[in-house]
Amino acid sequence: MGFARTCSVALVGVEGVVVEVQADLEPGVAAFTLVGLPDKSLVESRDRVRAAVVNSEAEWPQKKLTVGLSPASVPKGGSGFDLAVACAVLGAAERIDPRAIADLVLIGELGLDGRVRPVRGVLPAVLAAAEAGYRQVVVPEQTAGEASLVPGVSVLGVRSLRQLIAVLNDEPVPEEEPDGEGRPDAMLAGLMVPGAGVGTGLAARGPADDGRASFADLADVAGQHAARTALEVAAAGAHHLLLQGPPGAGKTMLAERLPGLLPPLTRQESLEVTGVHSVAGILPPGEPLVRTPPYCAPHHSATMQSLVGGGQGLPRPGAVSLAHRGILFLDEAPEFSAKALDALRQPLESGHVIVARSAGVVRLPARFLMVLAANPCPCGRHTLQGAGCECPASVIRRYQARLSGPLLDRVDLRVEVEPVSRSDLLGQSGRGESTETVADRVREARDRAAARLDGTPWSVNSEVPGHELRTRWQVAPGALAAAERDMERGMLTARGMDRVLRVAWTAADLAGRDRPTVQDVSLALQLRTGIARGALVLLGAEP
């Protein structure tokens, strides 16, 4: 009787669980039994592993073989267990030393010819292994860079099962020739999943001359001083934004330039975003670490499951998770289903989404900056004088009510985007500052906020609870008088007051002040209520 054990990782959402893979050989009729709550794709690994072992010039044991995946209570799926199963079987058959694989974590799919194919979710899998105390992992060669992002873990990238057997037995490692030059690498097919959001995750146009990512320039936007101010405040404090106006005014153009104002991700944020994108299958090959904030803009026909996460079996990341630490842009927001929009209310408050399905409950990260763009009515001409809007008043009310009050109450900034005038569009006076100039101010404002919030669980103003802002950091005397009057009149809720206070702190950070003044609170109120209070000149915008 032979026995061997090794380890792999099962992904539950974007979190990993270390799984012990055990192989037991007993005399009897040759059979291969796989136990431990495997799904259909994992059950099929029996045939892949057998063919890979035989084609790797190793003998398949002609005995009763049982492979167990423990803990058996955790659902397991995917092809990433193939490499661990093959090594456990070879260890039980004494083709390799069982002690050599006992403390290894092996992740990878096997082709029928014995080649090791890459799988999704390598980064969160290796993170889980490191947290469990494992220090040696074996992954496909194509994902070795992604696995190496985890500190304190020794990573071995292999091309084939033959190479791994040779390494474990201290034998000469055979050379594995790559596919023919000039042909697409079929080994990368499993990393990019069609229909999983390919192309929606990263907003950068490409590398600039200095090596940094280049974005669409804010200087391309003509006029729109109020909207530009709101865009800068949103980027500096990570405040949610609503852009409302007629078609062609520049709402989408403004939203597409917001990613360029955000600072690069920190190391921890990059690991979080990379893990989500790796599981979702949208991590670009050759770029193991996402350094720029993601940008996700789903179509208005998106379902609730595609926004917050779902799918058959265990839920998969949705648009809110793909936009984690970045921007979620909902163009034509009233055209989204009411159920899908209201499902955003929980992640907007908590920064994560908990999806419960029959197969299990998954917690997915979802701390994003939401930007909504909406027309004033179905035809879009309601706010234009002499434009001939024929939408009945009841139709306009129903259209605007698609954005529910509870959802809008969580939006800090609400800006009316007016049509661009001829002088702004054709003259030089309508051109504003460039993305680089505004991004520098945003970075300085975030540095001020980070210094103030040092030692707390928060990093930007939008994350700070209102109670902390009211008791721990005081505004200038009398600065909240106007906000208090609006609250007494019913124009602000308690949540709205907290959000005005957060925006006021962001305005103070942009202006270089130690605490918000009357001007900062006036700007926050104007950007939330739309009532002119003469405060837009604060950030260099024209009134």
Summarize the structure.
This protein is of the alpha/beta class and 543 residues long.
Describe the structure.
The protein is of the alpha/beta class and 543 residues long. Helices cover 34% and strands 16% of the residues. The protein is built from 22 helices and 18 strands. It has helices at 40-43, 45-55, 82-92, 98-101, 122-131, 144-147, 161-168, 225-237, 251-256, 267-280, 304-308, 319-322, 338-342, 345-350, 393-400, 405-408, 422-426, 435-452, 466-471, 481-488, 494-511, 518-529; strands at 2-12, 15-26, 31-35, 64-70, 105-106, 109-110, 116-117, 136-140, 154-158, 206-207, 213-214, 241-244, 295-296, 327-330, 352-357, 360-365, 369-374, 413-416. A 5-stranded parallel sheet has the order 13-14-17-12-18. Strands 1-2-4-3 form a 4-stranded mixed sheet. It is elongated and about 85 Å long. The N and C termini lie far apart (84 Å). Residues 201-212 have low confidence and may be disordered.
Topology, please?
Elements: E1 2-12, E2 15-26, E3 31-35, H1 40-43, H2 45-55, E4 64-70, H3 82-92, H4 98-101, E5 105-106, E6 109-110, E7 116-117, H5 122-131, E8 136-140, H6 144-147, E9 154-158, H7 161-168, E10 206-207, E11 213-214, H8 225-237, E12 241-244, H9 251-256, H10 267-280, E13 295-296, H11 304-308, H12 319-322, E14 327-330, H13 338-342, H14 345-350, E15 352-357, E16 360-365, E17 369-374, H15 393-400, H16 405-408, E18 413-416, H17 422-426, H18 435-452, H19 466-471, H20 481-488, H21 494-511, H22 518-529
Parallel strand pairs: 3-4, 5-8, 8-9, 12-17, 12-18, 13-14, 14-17
Antiparallel strand pairs: 1-2, 2-4, 6-7, 10-11, 15-16
